[in-house]
Model the fold of this input.
Amino acid sequence: MSDQVVTRFAPSPTGYLHIGGARTALFNWLYARGRGGKFLLRIEDTDRERSTPEATEAILKGMSWLGLDHDGDVISQFEGAARHAEVAHQLLAEGKAYKCFATQEEIAAFREQARAEGKSTLFRSPWRDADPSTHPDRPFVVRIKAPQDGTTVIRDKVQGDVTIRNDQLDDMVLLRSDGTPVYMLAVVVDDHDMGVTHVIRGDDHLNNAARQMMIYEAMGWKVPVWAHIPLIHGPDGKKLSKRHGALGAQEYQAMGYPAAGMRNYLARLGWSHGDDEFFTDEQAKEWFDLDGIGKSPARFDLKKLENLCGQHIAISDDAALRQEIEEYLDAAGLPALTETQSGDLERAMYCLKDRARTFPELLEKAHFALTARPIERDEKAEKALSSVSDGILDQLTPQLQNASWTRNELEETLNSFAEANGLKFGKLAGPLRAALAGRAVTPSVFDMMLVLGRDETIARISDAAAQS
Ligand code: GLU
Done:
């Protein structure tokens, strides 16, 4: 029981779920899910000025879109403030922390003098070893008694052993003068109390790990396994930013990328399993390991994302795909499908899902199934239609009346009709696409006929014949 893996995602609710955060959440989710462990969600809302409920909502929505389900309740860090303070008081009682009465002015003066003397400007409080009987009656902060010599080694699964000289660390404040706990303390207490065994997060937190270890050690708590993952860069190798395109995970939903493709792509952003590019969730859960995380920043590559999305669309279940497309339409603020369109889309799905990399591409192919008579034709379709001699489409209809509606027989009927009229099949297919879909680029003529059925097919062809 005690060796169960517990990971967590601990976003600060100050904005949407960005790509980097989504990838961190995914790594933690994969690591836990692949090991029968738990994946917890903690909202780090201690910064009251910057945290908003809307941001929490956006993060939850982003995770839900990505299918990153968490175990248990969402934990609010702010709500644990009393517990965080309790730990600081315990350290104080045990002599591992102390009350520091130094004022801001005194600290500034200390630094100035240190600078003038060419010494380290890290504040060394005169209160560290002061006798409590000398304590004045004025506000104080609580500082941890950090080790002053030796080294602290962060054994990181991605970065390797990172050694920090203890004389470079100051006595970090645990409680502010108003008695509120600092963020760094909150993180450690929460991770300990939540039973977190593995902390997988961005390497911008690597420096924090050294300070956080001081608290683990002072409390005699087991230090979790650390894995600090490199940030994500844009295709130009610079830190990912708005100028590289969308940053919010959910913006990708609104652009019509399937969640499974996004998960696959995000998993590959900084982690690899041999040469595997395309994989399912099941494979990712089985394969994901901290050893496969690279040390250098991954580069975001939209082409790769699209390519993987296309492969995931192709293998998706038709009903699930239809459902996800409807959610996409909603997320993109596009009109919802009618019940009929929804059914038609699902029936047509088998011939739409290969070679569509995004939902807009798939819906473009689905146009024939979603549109109703009279079929509006675009310019190319109009041209294709006028290239066929009058009467050809008219002559085709009786043959379709008699054909049995199977792919084989339709193929036979159309091929022999083309031959009898001295046409190459391609010459006939263009006008048929125009008649059936009003577009020049469509699924195969046979697929369209099969999806539309005999009556609708003949009606659309007759409409076109009457107009050409
Ligand atoms: N709240 C921090 C952030 O959003 C993460 C802290 C952690 O994972 O320890 O960057």
User: Anything to note?
Assistant: The chain has a mean pLDDT of 95.
